[in-house]
Design a protein that fits this description.
- With 353 residues, the protein is an alpha/beta fold.
- The protein has 2 domains: 4-201, no CATH class; 223-351, Oxidized Rhodanese, domain 1 (3-Layer(aba) Sandwich).
- The protein has 13 helices and 12 strands.
- The chain has a 5-stranded parallel beta sheet with strand order 6-11-10-7-9. Strands 1-2-3 form a 3-stranded parallel beta sheet.
- Strand 1 (70-74), helix 4 (80-89) and strand 2 (94-99) form a beta-alpha-beta unit.
- The longest helix is centred in the N-terminal third of the chain and has 17 residues, at 4-20.
- The relative contact order is 0.10.
- It comes from Candolleomyces eurysporus.
- This is Rhodanese domain-containing protein.
- One of its GO terms (molecular function) is protein tyrosine phosphatase activity.
- InterPro entries: Methyltranfer_dom (IPR025714), Rhodanese-like_dom (IPR001763), Rhodanese-like_dom_sf (IPR036873), SAM-dependent_MTases_sf (IPR029063).
Length: 353
């Protein structure tokens, strides 16, 4: 009879093997994720390797995450919920994945993750039991901890006949990890792993909040320094362009690079491209606006995000062949603050979500 440690290791090995096979059956993984409420847009935003087809819940749909929060995903698997949480907590927050299987240790992260620091991700490997969940939460100051077993049948995630795991580059290994450990025929994985909903309350504290020490407090430091200095246009100049009867679709584009502070009014007709992710989207942005003569950027006051994004776009333009575009970057002087100070109440210039 195998020991408890053998059984736990067998379960972890099997889940890890599933991680190594991620992407082999994309339709199946997608169907499982959608069954738990993940949207098509969310799944498209993820690296394919993040969705292992092992979903047993959808925590980011109900967690109501806020900018600046620190998120710990216990049992993170391939990181699907960590990836979805990261843009919600932003550059001043942090999303961390903790998983019991050797998913991260044995499988390299995809290139678009390793090359993109703005994912704000960390991944940790280590076994997590129900008792340890309670200890972690108690040590962090949480009270009234409640773990609710969803009674999900997790045995459906691998074949009952024990298909061989892929552990070599050319052919399957000689036998299934469960068979290698001589597990009993009536072995039930649900005795060792489970799907839980976790509820806990953290009382308010009088202690001052410690500022999170992270290299991504200034998210733009992860990207190249702007080389160019796009010129500014005054609010009056931009308003004249908007109201000009000669203005066509390819003449100007106005770009709002705010994200969470986008509410409260914006230049009517402006597009929203958040500054935090703008650099990564430059190729697509260029394809859309390479024939737009004036691309005008703004943020709250156009002293930070707006000029920076305009500079990145102009640098990208300068790196292209001169005859490949007719576009140029500009900055709206004074940002939305100056714009609203002049034009609040003028419906052709100011709009609201």
């Amino acid at each position: 009879m195998p020991s408890d440690s053998d059984l736990v290791k067998a379960v972890n090995d099997t889940y890890s093997d599933r991680a190594l096979k991620s992407g082999e059956d994309k339709d199946r993984s997608k169907a499982i994720a959608e069954a738990f409420g993940y949207t098509a847009d969310e799944l498209k935003s993820l690296p394919e390797e993040a969705n292992l087809g092992l979903s047993c819940g959808n925590p980011t749909a109900i967690a109501k995450l806020k900018e600046g929060e620190r998120v710990l995903d216990l049992g993170s698997g391939g990181g699907i919920d960590v990836f979805l949480a990261a843009p919600k907590v932003g550059p001043n927050g942090q999303a961390i994945g903790l998983d019991g299987s050797a998913i991260v240790a044995k499988k390299s992260l995809p290139e678009d993750v390793r090359g993109n620091l703005t994912a704000y991700l960390s991944c940790i490997v280590g076994a997590v039991t129900e008792a340890e969940y309670r200890t972690f939460l108690a040590d962090a100051g949480f009270q009234d901890v409640l773990l609710v077993d969803r009674k999900s049948d997790l045995s459906v995630y691998w074949d009952s006949n024990g298909s061989a795991p892929t552990t070599s580059c050319c052919s399957p290994a000689s036998s299934d990890v469960l068979k290698q450990r001589n597990l009993p025929a009536d072995f039930d994985v649900n005795e060792w792993v489970g799907s839980y909903e976790l509820y806990a309350v953290k009382p308010p504290s009088d202690e001052p909040t410690r500022t999170l020490e992270t290299a991504l407090v200034r998210s733009w430091d992860a990207y190249p320094t702007v080389k160019s200095g796009p010129p500014s246009l005054t609010a009056e100049e931009v308003a004249e362009l908007i109201r000009s009867p000669e203005k066509g679709g390819d003449t100007i584009a106005i770009v709002d690079v705010r994200r969470n502070d986008h509410g409260g009014g914006h230049v009517k007709g402006s597009e929203q491209w958040a500054a935090q992710t703008f650099y990564d989207n430059l190729p697509g942005f260029f394809e859309k606006h390479k024939n737009t003569e004036k691309v005008i950027f703004y943020c709250q006051s156009s002293n930070g995000r707006g000029p920076r994004s305009a500079g990145w776009y102009q640098d990208y333009l300068d790196s292209q062949a001169p005859n490949s575009h007719s576009s140029k970057a500009y900055v709206l002087k004074g940002g939305i603050q100056g714009w609203k100070a002049k034009y609040t109440g003028e419906s052709d210039l100011v709009d609201y979500d």
